[in-house]
Amino acid sequence: MTIQHFSDARTMPSVPIHGDYLPTRVTALEKLFPDARIRLHAKLDQLQMSGSTKERTAKFLLDDLEASGALKPGGTVVESTSGNLGMALARQCTQRGFRFVAVVDERANEAALQTMAAFGARLERVPTPADGNRLRARVERVEALLAQHRDAVTTRQYGNPANPAAHASTTMPEMVASLGAAPDYLYVAMSTTGTALGCQQAIEREGWHTKLVGVDAEGSALFGGAVGERKLPGLGAGFETDLSADAHPHAVRRIRESDMIRGCRVLARREGILAGASTGAIVAAIARDLPTFEEDACVAFLVHDGGSAYLPTVYNDVWVRAEINGGAQALASLDRNDPFTAHP
């Protein structure tokens, strides 16, 4: 992995803070797939203040509410979250003087919940419904809370155009500026599909040749997927979101959770990047597509969040063996040159 180092703090370049998010660097990855004849780059959005690319989303969603007049000084924001957006909204709400109520389910990452609470958020926990659709149950609880508290508002992350606008305005243009040209392929994980749609909008607006690959979880309903049980939060959705109707990735890759584990673990061991499950899914998707890339293709992806909150799960051997179908085989494959194809 090639990273520029600065030996003297006085030579460290100043990085402006744009509102509530940071422009993040793009770095070349040379060890992840050492035999692949591609140029692979990662945008390190886990370096955002709250630890994920949702810092961008939160800023645009809150800016939109304030600009419309719906969110008044001292007001309350209510939103459904599996973790990352909740942490970003909690941080930014406390900075802006708003109260934040995070509606979460039983699959929410405990470290993320503790982080939200540390920023002053109130946690509204929703039990798993009989049909297992936790996302729908969270959204329904948001609507119930809004009906009870008429002065509260929601960011409407699943259908608000401000969600993709964050990535059309910042994420994709930053990526291209860092690389000096648009990548041939861009891999983005999907939940609300806001990040993928925003990158798509920037690609279409600028006429870039980039092929957008959306990475989804097996068990997600997005793009006609079959709904199933998922143990790892933050990737996929229990229903087709309003934003997904406008998203048209060139390809969708559905990744099983054992391969997300492989992707996370290999990225950490080979490149020293500790990332969350959605980024592990991206690594697995790229590994699957390696034989299809033309020689010297520029392939880029977003590191959506950091892995610290996943230490008790993704990076815990005992948990992986007990909770993830195929988890033991995933762990056993990690020392192989190609852990993604050298398993049953």
Account of the protein in words:
Helix 3 links the parallel strand 4 and strand 5. This protein has helices at about 55-70, 85-95, 110-120, 135-150, 160-180, 195-205, 255-270, 275-290, 315-325, 325-330, and strands at about 25-30, 40-45, 75-80, 100-105, 120-125, 150-155, 185-190, 210-215, 250-255, 295-305. With about 350 residues, it is an alpha/beta fold. The radius of gyration is 19 Å and the shape is globular. The chain has two domains: about 10-50 and about 160-330, Rossmann fold; about 55-155, Rossmann fold, CATH 3.40.50.1100. It contains ten helices and ten strands. The longest helix is centred in the middle third of the chain and has 18 residues, at about 160-180. A six-stranded mixed beta sheet has the order 1-2-10-7-8-9, sandwiched between helices.
